[in-house]
Amino acid sequence: MTDGTVVVARPSITQLVVRALQLRCPHCGGRQIFASVFELKDRCPTCGILLERGEPDYFVGAYLFNLIAVELILFFCVCGFVYVTWPDPPWDLITYVTAFLMLTGCMFCYPFAKTTWLAVDLAIRPLSPEELDGHDHGGEVGERAVPHV
Ligand SMILES: [Zn+2]
Fold first, then answer.
1. pTM above 0.85, yes or no
2. Intra-chain end-to-end CA distance of the chain, in Å
3. Residue 74: is it exposed, middle or buried by C-beta count within 10 angstroms (0-12/13-18/19+)?
4. What's the 31 CA to ligand 1 centre distance in angstroms?
5. pLDDT category, 57, cuts 50, 70, 90?
6. For position 10, what pLDDT does the model report?
7. What is the CA(100)–ligand 1 centre distance, in A?
8. Can you list the alpha helix ranges (DSSP code H) found in the chain?
């Protein structure tokens, strides 16, 4: 950065997703990005990027992503269980266990959904030098005043 040019690291999609599945910052791989089990810190403690990228309601897509992932996993598990226990599957057991797994699965997978959502967003809309500068200097991103690449 000697000539004033800001170079922004661009991890591959594989790096982004692997880091996200390890609950690390997809951008730098830094740890301890969660303030609590379900809540991310405002900034990555290692690289300083805004984890919500300065956008309100950034993680609404993560809710949908989480719901779809958990339901798909459960769907295939239930289908496999019914197939194995056919012709007499225990429907009552399947009903109660599936309801329990739906609720606990959504809670367990939610942190992964958030980091994966951020990873996919960083792959589709990589950090631009302008956005990174806005993160560093606390600029108002708001109405896309700081454009993405
Ligand atoms: Zn980071």
1. no
2. 19
3. middle
4. 8
5. confident
6. 86
7. 34
8. 13-21, 60-85, 91-124, 129-137
